Amino acid sequence: MKALPMLENKKKPNPVDTHVGSRVRLRRTMLGMSQEKLGESLGITFQQIQKYEKGSNRIGASRLQRMSEVLNVPVAFFFEDAPGGIDGKEGFAEPSGPDYVVDFLSSTEGLQLNRAFVRIADPKVRRRVIDLVRTLADAAAAEDKA
């Protein structure tokens, strides 16, 4: 029976929908915005926002466009690092998929770090901060190997 595989596909969200939803959650939390506030801005319930963020409901094109306006990002933001890219290459050193980034940036520490970083206006200072963090991470990794 061919109907059975279709039923199985309906139960599991499409990885792209899950990714787009996680990017909505990431940006919303970066702005310190609640699901309720985002829902109000879009004329929908916070429960619908939850479903979008989990990927269980697909976000339509016009709604995604409106979300990009409310969250002040281009529509392309929601698709950055989406699964099924052209290169399809994943490194072995990092967890696969962007979930670990979203999880970190949704944490208290991640939000504090992000909010402080975006207040740095000078691109040269931002680059030095990135270099510093990279150096600290490399040193910690070297200590773990020793």
UniProtKB/TrEMBL annotation:
Domain of life: Bacteria
Gene3D superfamilies in the record: lambda repressor-like DNA-binding domains
Organism: Aurantimonas endophytica
Molecular function (Gene Ontology), one example: DNA binding
PROSITE patterns per record: HTH_CROC1 (PS50943)
Domain HTH cro/C1-type: 24-78
Protein name per the record: Transcriptional regulator with XRE-family HTH domain
InterPro entries: Cro/C1-type_HTH, Lambda_DNA-bd_dom_sf
Alphabetized SUPFAM superfamilies for the sequence: lambda repressor-like DNA-binding domains
